[in-house]
Design brief:
Chain B: GO terms for molecular function: ATP binding; NEDD8 activating enzyme activity. Chain B: Keywords: ATP-binding, Ligase, Nucleotide-binding, Ubl conjugation pathway. Chain B: It holds the Pfam family E2_bind. The complex is a heterodimer. Chain A is α/β, with parallel strands linked by helices. Chain A is built from 23 helices and ten strands. Helices cover 50% and strands 9% of the residues of chain A. Chain A is elongated and about 90 Å long. Chain B is α/β, with parallel strands linked by helices. Chain B is globular. The chains are: A alpha/beta, B alpha/beta. Chains A and B meet through helix 1, helix 2, helix 3, helix 4 and helix 16 of A and helix 2, helix 4, helix 11, helix 12 and strand 10 of B.
Amino acid sequence: MAFTKASKDQKYDRQLRLWGDHGQEELENAHVCLINSTASGTEILKNLVLPGIGAFTIVDGHKVSGEDVGNNFFLSNNSIGRNRAQAATELLQELNTDVSGNFVEESPEKLLDNDPEFFHRFTLVIGVQLPESTCLRLGSVLWNANIPFLVCRTYGLVGYMRLVVKEHTVIESHPDNALEDLRLDQPFAELKNHIQSYDLEGMGKKDHSHTPWIIIVAKYLEKWFSEHNFQFPKNYKEKEAFKQLIRQGILKSEKGTPEDEENFEEAIKNVNTALNPTKISSGVDDIFNGEQCNDITSQTPTFWVMTRAVREFVHNDGGGNLPVRGSIPDMIADSEKFITLQNIYREKAMQDASVVSKHVESLLQSVGKPSESISEQDIKLFCKNAAFLRVVRCRSLAEEYSVETVNKDAITSCMDSADGEMVLYLMLRSVDRFYQQHSRYPGVYNYQVEEDISKLKLCVNSLLQEYSLNVNVKDDYIHEFCRYGASEPHTVASFLGGSAAQEAIKIITRQFVPFNNTFIYNAMSQTTATFQL
Amino acid sequence: MADTDEPEKKRRRVVELTEKMVVDGGSRDGGEWDGRWNHINTFLERPGPFTHPDFEPSTESLQFLLDTCKILVIGAGGLGCELLKDLALSGFRHIHVVDMDTIDVSNLNRQFLFRLKDVGRPKADIAADFINGRIPGCNVVPHFKKIQDFDESFYRQFHIIVCGLDSIIARRWMNGMLLSLLVYEDGVLDPSSIIPLIDGGTEGFKGNARVIFPGMTACIDCTLELYPPQINFPMCTIASMPRLPEHCVEYVRMLLWPKEKPFGDGVGLDADDPEHIQWVYQKSQERAAEFSITGVTYRLTQGVVKRIIPAVASTNAVIAAACATEVFKIASSAYIPLNNYMVFNDVDGLYTYTFEAERKENCSSCSQVPQDLHFSPSAKLQEVVDYLTENASLQMKSPAITATLEGKNKTLYLQTVASIEQRTRPNLSKSLKELGLLDGQELAVADVTTPQTLLFKLSFTS
């Protein structure tokens, strides 16, 4: 029984408030591939099925074992002996009838041998508990096909994720603490005129107490300029003096005591951030200087066409500044003053966006594409978020694993804290080596634990030697990783399931910023770390 | 006769309680199969270099988890569903779950134990049924109740309590309850009276998980400042100077609805009634149009009226998993538990920060230090009430104050019972001296944020 649009709105209400209807649409158009429906895999999928991913396909050649059922919510004991992909698909599908669930009873190795283009149909591929060789083979196929690849594994009390995507652009990064775009250091003409229209000294008390703090700061800045040779308050001392200047502007009662003017208090409180110079962040600057920005062709993705258009705006029309964002924070003021001020910013933003639009049009024309290929709505959204653009580029697995291009610096410097998360990464690489040599992971059976420690240590040493890593891996970690016996405890798999699913959603919706590129979770200490390897 | 009955009754109760502590209903077939607990056994049966100093590898630890260990999960919502799954798949079988809510459609995007057909049914019941059906041998016992419906005898039976609550008040109440169970002998805390509390919270893409050993580590109230009070819009903004669409909605909810009574006399605004919300939405649009404010949508209206917090499955999965890992560590002594607070945020990459929240020396809940109240004898009782509600470390909701005057227990002010509120309201404008209170006097304060009355010492300033 499928849901109607209205009931889907109800069901997904709590997440629509995070990524909007357009984000949800991206999610519903996506088809994700999961390789290996172990606990980690099914937990990741659960967190994609519940929010309504369009479709999933599980690729898994294994049969369900008793051990599998023990840690996996989506396998039941009457499926023991059956194909694991099929069994898991049934119970995952049951979670959400909006989603289309599929399975392929085949190992990824076989698919890579016989039909590597099988993977080309997916929006994203998630590989769980993959042996190193399979991981690298698949990584190469997906890299060449430009399909994002998310590698995940749970190994004892350690969780691991690796994102492999050539270039992922984000317009709506939704930063937690964004600075406002008020232009108080360089007010545009309409804002200047509006500020002029205020006469603080000549106002009645009610108006005085309900003037927006933006106007107050602007007015006192003018005063400060005239007394300080048109220089902004620069250091702490001057900013304090500036705040004092504003404070003196608070109306006084007949007795001479200052009245309660909250808007003036707001102005004083906001001086530090209001005086931040309007400028383009280095991050956005880097994006403007990106290769794709310079060479616009008919193949250029929309993101880069709009980036180029905004760059043109910055240089030709914006006086070195981005298009005005158009939003202001709430502040003590009467409705009319606030709305009027807000509209000044909004109208300027609209104006700037339409200039950007002209640039977009001419760029599209120059490569023979219709101007409708990028909508006004998209351009407006881009302009509003121009200060928060992000581009994530991950190195390929081949680069990470090659002796020539391994990130020695990152590994060595992180190993300075010998008990941080980097040693766990090296241990995961070492157990992979062990698997390559012995076709099994260390310590799976009790009797193996002791004897495997020295074997694993040889793997650690050969790994460090091969990459010329002059670091020390404590014996304790070698012992611990033998102890794990490649187990996949459910709670660690579930933590990873939540983490990985949200990264997948970020890739699919192009909202919020994915990690770059290696994430380690240590369930012993409940700590995490992200490395760029 | 009453005297001879008592010891027998007591004995029977003790036997009952002991039985309860070992096995709780277990008529279900364990349904074991080969390899079922392999993924857990590595941590219970094998020695390791990072285990807890008290840890002893044993094949019997699993039996303790399966047969004896009793866990209480508070909340069967976003975190609760995840917690139940995580615990059941970690070897815990004797689990109780408490939740006073029924299932709503908007829960279905993350509370995965519920389906469309379950809407309207009690969360605790449906959650328990689902887990018990999916995980053979697991025995989740549901309680469709408020946590305040239970007393110490209920809570005392559990080895560990995990909270997946959406209310700070409820958290503080649980915190107070576990503190009240602590036994001190000659000023020394009896460790067997400590019930560890694992607490998880989420909001959008942010979350936190913490481990509390009541009486030993920082409690909820020790770190109350970490939960800033909810900011409400000033009344003058709502009444005469709206600027944001939210102000328009609050105007309709707080001022227009009581005035127009659109669905009849005495019919309060039911945030879950779509007809009510539709009315509020329309009126909010009208209000907004009056002031040229844009942006009032149905979704925004609903969000403001219901104080909706956005939520997704992924954050709940992460935080619940961290909490469940801690439950496992503590129950098995396998590893040293989280010490003691982890925050998580995956808006930009994935960020966690783990730190040790410190105990507050004069914590109003766990420090056993009587709280001083410094007031002038001419201060009005209203000032004391304001202090109790506004102070960042106390943040009480509607404190009820009693004192012993002339040998008798007198209620100075109580808000939550209308008749008593009316009777004691005049006291608010009386001074402490007028009320007969003396320097050094003890005031007993009860509030929804704590199951136990808090004692304060009145200290007069000149």
